[in-house]
């Protein structure tokens, strides 16, 4: 198994820059006085807050506003990029965490901002303005896995987190959680804004992204994450991520 390294930053620290982080590296729960964008130029990572988890493949960037407790975990050898958005400029961006698609322009701006060298004085300030403009588009919800507050629903989702491939029905989860199937179905919609099947699919896609980043084949990933055949996995993955598993895996270490 790959080594897992843990790090908790000092309170209030808002780092900016880049670094190569190993698979399994975990940046513990912390918060910043400024906003922060995190981008993986290679590899992938997850950002977790009280509102849920966002998985970011190499074509997504996560946004965390000032004051939100959050943590990060890397999958694969990750080219980790952190860009600070000063608190005074955050009013133009989302007031809650989110994940955004990375356009070619946004990607180049993020890479340039994490290079300590400025091409000319004021270049980084102007690039931050470009980044803010690029993030004016709506965030993507497909890769967001919300987490429950209700104890019964949390019991059910914890069982799925522990074993994403399990084929347990909602009625069986209800018996384990001390709630009826009807009650759990209502709680999924009311607290998480989606059906049980949709939530479980996104959970499985999160795990599939990790397996693919680790180098597993599409077929092995499909079986490990609960799909009965690779075709149904490819369809579900493409609908959520926006590209096939093969194309996602091929682009993980593409030079940028």
From TrEMBL:
<dbReference type="InterPro" id="IPR014710">
    <property type="entry name" value="RmlC-like_jellyroll"/>
</dbReference>
<dbReference type="InterPro" id="IPR009057">
    <property type="entry name" value="Homeodomain-like_sf"/>
</dbReference>
<keyword id="KW-0804">Transcription</keyword>
<protein>
    <recommendedName>
        <fullName>HTH-type transcriptional regulator RipA</fullName>
    </recommendedName>
</protein>
<dbReference type="GO" id="GO:0043565">
    <property type="term" value="F:sequence-specific DNA binding"/>
</dbReference>
<dbReference type="InterPro" id="IPR011051">
    <property type="entry name" value="RmlC_Cupin_sf"/>
</dbReference>
<feature type="domain" description="HTH araC/xylS-type">
    <location>
        <begin position="154"/>
        <end position="251"/>
    </location>
</feature>
<dbReference type="InterPro" id="IPR018060">
    <property type="entry name" value="HTH_AraC"/>
</dbReference>
<keyword id="KW-0805">Transcription regulation</keyword>
<keyword id="KW-0678">Repressor</keyword>
<keyword id="KW-0238">DNA-binding</keyword>
<dbReference type="GO" id="GO:0003700">
    <property type="term" value="F:DNA-binding transcription factor activity"/>
</dbReference>
<dbReference type="Pfam" id="PF12833">
    <property type="entry name" value="HTH_18"/>
</dbReference>
<feature type="region of interest" description="Disordered">
    <location>
        <begin position="1"/>
        <end position="27"/>
    </location>
</feature>
């Amino acid at each position: 198994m790959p080594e897992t390294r843990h790090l908790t930053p000092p309170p209030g620290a808002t780092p900016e820059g880049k670094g190569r982080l190993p698979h399994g590296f975990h940046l513990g729960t912390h918060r910043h006085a400024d906003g922060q964008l995190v981008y993986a130029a290679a590899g992938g990572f997850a950002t977790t807050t009280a509102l849920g988890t966002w998985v970011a493949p190499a074509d997504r960037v996560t946004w965390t506003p000032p004051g939100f407790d959050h943590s990060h975990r890397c999958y694969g050898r990750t080219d980790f990029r952190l860009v600070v958005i000063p608190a005074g400029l955050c009013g133009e961006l989302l007031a809650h965490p989110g994940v955004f698609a990375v356009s070619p322009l946004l990607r180049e701006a993020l890479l340039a901002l994490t290079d300590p060298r400025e091409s000319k004085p004021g270049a980084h300030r102007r690039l931050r303005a470009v980044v803010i403009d690029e993030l004016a588009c709506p965030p993507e919800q497909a890769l967001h896995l919300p987490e429950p507050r209700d104890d019964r629903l949390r019991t059910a989702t914890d069982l799925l987190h522990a074993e994403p491939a399990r084929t347990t029905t909602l009625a069986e989860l209800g018996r384990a959680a001390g709630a009826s199937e009807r009650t759990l179905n209502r709680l999924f919609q009311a607290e998480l804004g989606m059906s049980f099947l949709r939530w479980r699919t996104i959970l499985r896609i999160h795990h599939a992204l990790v397996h693919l980043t680790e180098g597993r084949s599409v077929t092995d990933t499909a079986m490990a994450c609960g799909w009965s055949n690779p075709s149904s996995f490819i369809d579900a993955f493409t609908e959520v991520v926006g590209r096939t598993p093969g194309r996602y895996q091929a682009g993980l270490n593409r030079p940028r």
